[in-house]
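Quick one: structure for this chain?
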Amino acid sequence: MKLKGILLVTRDIGRARKFYEDVFGLKLLADNSGNMMLSDGVFLQDEGIWRGFLKRDVIPEHNAGELYFEEEDIEAFAERLERLYPDIRYVNRLMTHSWGQKVVRFYDPDGHLIEVGTPM
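Got it. Here's what it folds into:
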């Protein structure tokens, strides 16, 4: 068995696509009317489709998991994020953990928690 990616539910799939392209440089690989496959194993699905499958509400900012990315030039990443999305909601701005790793944590436009850190 092989993990193929992670699916993120979104209220506005076009906005989510633009965010992941702008911030992480992901590329659109497939667009199937409310379902998008981006590079690096990120899948986007329209909230209405997801709700139809589960018959349950979507809970933004559930804080039960996060997407984790690594970036060597974290200072440049943090500056670009602030420039492109000045209204981004942060958990923490760029900081350094006691073990030396620099990280920034924030929410995407749909409330998915994201961490970007220097390589471990």
